[in-house]
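retry 2 of 3: previous attempt timed out while embedding zinc ion. Reduced batch size to 1 and resubmitted. Inputs unchanged:
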Amino acid sequence: MRERTLALRLRDQPDDWTEPGAHPVVDQVYRVPLTLPLDGLAAVNVYVIEDPGGLILIDAGWAGPETEKALGEALRSLGHGLGDIDQVIVTHAHWDHYTQALALRASLGTRVRVGREERHTIEDFDLADGVWPRQVGLLLECGAPELAARVAAVPVEQDDRDMPFGPPDAWLSDGERIALSDRRLVVRATPGHTRGHVVVGDPSAGLLFAGDHVLPHITPSLGFERSPETYPLRSYLDSLRLVRELPDALLLSAHGPVTRSVHTRVDELIAHHEERLDEVLRQVASGAETAYAVARAMPWTRRQRRLDDLPVVHQMTAVLEIDAHLDVLAQQGAVIGQRAGGVRRFAPAA
Ligand SMILES: [Zn+2]
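retry 2 succeeded.
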């Protein structure tokens, strides 16, 4: 009965989720897709909540003049302006979500909040260390010295140097409630995609602002962080189970259209990772000893490409993803890991 009520309240969505504008989701909540300067990821959704106390944004986009212009135009179509934004609640500190919030703060004094555990990546941020400093060391442990050298050589671009980055006005904590005039939002820590990722629920309206934790069409990357945690996949799977235990809600994610059921998508994501764990285990059983060897033995992307044919940064995330799966298999007792000469090697448990 409840699901039916939620489904009926969801407004018609455009066929192409990236179509610019302020698309109504339910009363007083709008989805604003903003174009991204990235290969492969076309846009990020910013959600706008109209509250008598001011506008609340969930995420803000990739800082830049085009983002600010598109966001401003979308707000104007609703009769508002950028100055009407009371605060931005950011699901995680990746640039496509966080940096435009900091740009708004710099020009308009807008309040910005992000999950407390993002402090590691924010406080460790120093481009003098290179673009992917931690990942270079992890790739060596994965048995991929040549790939590590190529990742270490990725240059820091001027755009990277110009990007606003730093601490928010306040950190968000798990379980924190944010009382607006008309609704109450609940913050839940969902580490995995990043260690400080949060989702924001509006339980009485049946909405979940899911950031990149639950995406309708893709699985979120692990390993893109400046300062990643030790076991990101274990955290991610725990965070999926946490969201599955909340009442079902409309899925308002950061990349993709609004869909009707968080639970349906979480079940698919858990099944995907279970298949992936099985496949990694099969590769270890047939003799692949390192994360790099497993990654080279497996097909990648929907087009079943070989690891060596992927762009270097995608090779990096692919190997680190396998590394995270090997850690979970070791925690489950399915494989045994040993470190020798700075490289972690795995064998099937007897
Ligand atoms: Zn994102």
